[in-house]
Amino acid sequence: MHVTTDYVLVLDQHSEDVQAVEPLLRALHCPAIIANSPDQVADRVSNGFPYLLILVGNHHDWPTTLLNELRNIADTFGSTILSLADNHAPSWMHQEENPGFDGFLVQPLTSEVLGSLVQSAWVKQLCSLNSCPLPRSPQSTSYPLLQ
After folding, report:
1. E strands within the chain?
2. How many CB atoms lie within 10 A of CB 60?
3. 61-117: per-residue pLDDT in tens?
4. Which H or E element spans position 42?
5. What whole-number distance in Å separates Cα of residue 51 and Cα of residue 19?
6. Is the pLDDT higher at 44 or at 133?
7. φ and ψ of 131, to 5 deg
8. CA neighbor of 42 nearest in space, from 33, 56, 61, 102
């Protein structure tokens, strides 16, 4: 079975914070999908899991069952899950309280920071799937199908 994993999935709770992420991903020429509900997430990941998930909005408002399911799938596909946090109102927590995030992405964002995270997540997933045959850039316009 071929699974496409050539995109970043941004889960947004109808917040204005997504406006900080979306233009930076476009500037990086990074394929991105914005989902606003668990149903949209389920529809998208049924065709392949992204290499990077960014949860926008208060992470306490995301259903625990959704976060657990995303974490299980992310572990299978080697994906990275980040929560977007504001530097003026930090919302990170102790590791033992962490619902499954790999880390927190703190605003204000820069293209250098986001670009580094995109590349790191892309390589992490590629190598976790034992598919490191060619050095490619995630900004490339075409992606191989991963098995």
Report:
1. 8-12, 32-35, 52-56, 80-86, 103-107
2. 10
3. 778 888 888 898 888 889 999 988 777 665 556 666 667 888 888 888 899 999 999
4. helix 38-45
5. 21
6. 44
7. -125, 60
8. 33
Residues 141, 31 contacting (CB under 8 angstroms): no
109 vs 82: CA distance, rounded Å: 13
* Unique residue bearing structure tokens 């204005």: 16
Cα dihedral 89/90/94/95 (nearest 10): 140
**pLDDT single digits (tens) 3-35:** 556 899 999 877 778 888 999 999 999 899 999
Check whether 140 has a pLDDT greater than 80.
no
Side chain identity at residue 105, one-letter code: L
d(CA 106, CA 101): 13
Reading the block at residue 99, the tokens are 């619902």
Query: Cα separations (Å) of 26 from 36, 70, 76, 107?
Result: 18, 24, 27, 17
* pTM for this prediction: 0.79
Contacts of 114 (CB under 8 A, 6+ apart): 21, 24, 25, 28, 105
Q: Which residue has the tokens 């020429």?
A: 29
Question: What was the pLDDT predicted at 76?
Answer: 86
Expressed in angstroms, the distance from the first to the final Cα of the chain is 6
